[in-house]
Design goal:
By secondary structure, the chain is α/β, with parallel strands linked by helices. 40% of the residues lie in helices and 17% in strands.
Length: 393
């Protein structure tokens, strides 16, 4: 998932409202910090109060839970988890990162959550030799910078675009696809990649971009209706996707609507209106296993998460937990200095609550699965892996 910014069957509720309430009750840094004895500070950076915070609060909560459970074992070195609310803004993230390194002396960072802020923050962390693991930044170019201290626990947009395009052209039988982006790092990269992959699969494509600060997308809606596509794919975040999907349905468009991980939140349904959102499809490299059907770790995590936060696991909850767990594994191995932690991350290999956590030389996650979700009522149930899922609407 990026902003100038993001296997099983079963229904899940991704509730931004519940997540926001839970973070208000359990989001204090003290909840996750260890008291007394040896302690290291690990940061979490992302949009925790901005318009797309529904995508970042779940991984923040997942990270909180991982650290809290680790600290409860009374380890030799405890973790203080400190949050940095960037609101998804690269310039704000840059200032926060500088303070985290110089003043808070972090030994690692979970995040940044979005790709645009990751582009700005990674050079600061590289210079300071501070390792980072993002749960949700998916821009392809992040792994092409030659950074040595950067990692992510989610598949990138090239993988997502291939999976989504395969789903649209085969399972959804779309012959004509119109892609729209918010013209930002994440959205444009994803929409362009979808168009390229769909075109390669034989689909006819057209594209357009909208202003993410605007509210009237009638020009784009008119272009879509003139093209008469079988499917529209939006690259960007749920705040804009909701407005676009609403105007598409109200403008008479009857085909399929789809977006990526940046829209996988109930905020999409709220923005489009429940009736307009029905049948909308979402692709994501994240696995949301609220029923714990994948493995015993996933089941325990889902149970523990709901007990603490009062809501089911949501987008990037598992990735937040697994990102935090990479640092926890390093501490368990006796690595508490930034460079030692980073060296350890190059060799880490364990079953997370979502996927197998192992990084390649560029910091990419070895597991490369993409999953499809579909709006039903006010829920976003998982249809399955993009190679097997089929739309129901």
């Amino acid at each position: 998932m990026r902003r100038n910014k993001m296997r099983i069957t079963g229904a899940l509720a991704v509730s931004a409202v519940l997540a926001l309430s839970a973070v208000a009750c359990g989001g204090d840094d003290k909840d996750s910090g260890g008291g007394g004895g040896n302690e290291v500070t690990i940061g979490f950076m992302g949009d925790l109060t901005g318009e797309n915070s529904g995508l970042v609060i779940p991984p923040w909560q997942g990270a909180q839970l991982a650290v809290e459970q680790y600290n409860a074992t009374n380890p030799k070195v405890k973790i203080k988890l400190k949050k940095y609310d960037s609101q998804g803004k690269p310039e704000q993230a840059t200032t926060l990162a500088q303070g985290a390194v110089k003043n808070d002396k972090i030994v690692g960072l979970i995040g940044p959550a979005f790709s645009g802020e990751s582009q700005s923050v990674a050079p600061i962390l590289e210079e300071a030799k501070i390792p980072s693991v993002t749960p949700s930044a998916t821009n392809v170019t992040l792994a092409e910078k030659g950074w040595k201290y950067w990692h992510r626990v989610v598949a990138d947009d090239a993988v997502q675009s291939a999976g989504a395009a395969n789903f649209l052209t085969k399972a959804a039988a779309a012959k004509k696809i119109f892609t729209v982006s918010d013209n930002q790092d994440y959205g444009k990269g994803l929409a362009d990649a979808i168009a390229k992959a769909a075109g390669g699969a034989g689909a006819q494509t057209q594209s357009d971009a909208v202003d993410d600060k605007a509210t009237d997308y009638s020009s784009t809606v008119n272009k879509i209706n003139q093209f008469k596509p079988d499917a529209v794919y939006f690259g960007g975040y749920y705040a804009v996707a909701g407005r676009l999907f609403k105007q598409l349905r109200e403008g008479g468009y009857k085909g399929k609507m789809m977006s990526g991980d940046g829209s996988l939140a109930t905020g999409l349904i709220e923005g489009a209106g429940e009736k307009n959102a029905q049948g909308a499809l979402l692709s994501c490299g994240c696995l949301i296993d609220a029923e714990g059907k994948t493995n015993e770790k996933a089941k325990k995590f889902a149970t523990d998460y709901k007990a603490k936060f009062g809501s089911d696991v949501a987008i990037y909850s598992t990735e937040g937990f697994d990102a935090a767990s990479t640092f926890i594994e390093a501490l368990k191995a006796g690595k508490s200095e930034p460079e030692d932690i980073n060296a350890f991350l190059k060799t880490v290999d364990f079953q997370g609550v979502g996927k197998q956590i192992k990084f390649d030389a560029n910091g990419e996650l070895a597991a490369q699965d993409i999953f499809i979700y579909e709006v039903k009522g006010n829920l976003l149930p998982l249809l399955g892996n993009s190679n097997e899922a089929k739309p129901t609407a």
